[in-house]
Amino acid sequence: xxxxxxxxxxxxxxxxxxxxxxxxxxxxxxxxxxxxxxxxxxxxxxxxxxxxxxxxxxxxxxxxxxxxxxxxxxxxxxxxxxxxxxxxxxxxxxxxxxxxxxxxxxxxxxxxxxxxxxxxxxxxxxxxxxxxxxxxxxxxxxxxxxxxxxxxxxxxxxxxxxxxxxxxxxxxxxxxxxxxxxxxxxxxxxxxxxxxxxxxxxxxxxxxxxxxxxxxxxxxxxxxxxxxxxxxxxxxxxxxxxxxxxxxxxxxxxxxxxxxxxxxxxxxxxxxxxxxxxxxxxxxxxxxxxxxxxxxxxxxxxxxxxxxxxxxxxxxxxxxxxxxxxxxx
Length: 329
Prior knowledge:
Elements: E1 3-6, H1 12-24, E2 29-34, E3 47-50, H2 57-70, E4 75-77, H3 81-87, H4 91-96, E5 100-101, H5 106-112, H6 115-124, E6 132-134, E7 147-151, E8 160-163, H7 166-175, E9 179-183, E10 191-199, E11 203-212, E12 218-224, H8 227-239, E13 243-253, E14 256-263, H9 270-275, H10 280-288, E15 305-307, E16 322-323
Parallel strand pairs: 1-2, 1-4, 2-3, 3-16, 4-5
Antiparallel strand pairs: 6-9, 7-8, 7-9, 10-11, 10-13, 11-12, 12-15, 13-14
């Protein structure tokens, strides 16, 4: 039985991860946390705590360690990039406690948490990426409009603006504090998301052409089988010595793939992937479990479409265990 602690269970990624774990290991014991008391992940956890905001670093990290001790957690999975980066600061403490932590190595986190650094490393290794500039090194005219303005360390599409002229560009860089400027490549109809898992020996990947919707999540996916994408995934896994799961975002232009982001975490297509046999969250747990063998993967081919659906969750307040005070002082 897996005894696992998952953060941010109210978000689309966190709740999808819970569904995958519960389906694969129905007798697992799952501890969840979120900053919101009532959330969509509650129906899948055995114990729940309200987490302090991660902006309060010390309070957040103390909270994580205390919950791990209290709940006798064996596996810890931080979901959001901010939580992952913070967890990396206490990963040795958690390991000394005998806890397996599902985060990627320091090179993956150090490079892929920055979109600017990602573009630079990709270019150095012969992979295509949109031209990318920090604000201070950009001169008007280097890029043609439209120009993508995004936060270097932001998550998802929350800090992203498409500037179609200089006035819009000037306004965007005042709103986004850590802005980088990126060449606009291709079209929305040719945007792809690629899940990549490696245990350090074998690399597996699955690709979807996608459309984004509410909250910046992938709401429509179309399975894609392309040898060129598989080769890119393997090369990136080798560059970063990957032992875990990442997500590559790219666009196709003139029959070539341009990588504009690598997320050093599980992504919003994790449940789509799981339903198609690409069970990277499960493989990650099995990889860390000395008594388990990583399940086989047989890639699926065909005209496969996936659509994100909305659902309703009903709670009985009296039956929800929530500790609001003990760990938030």
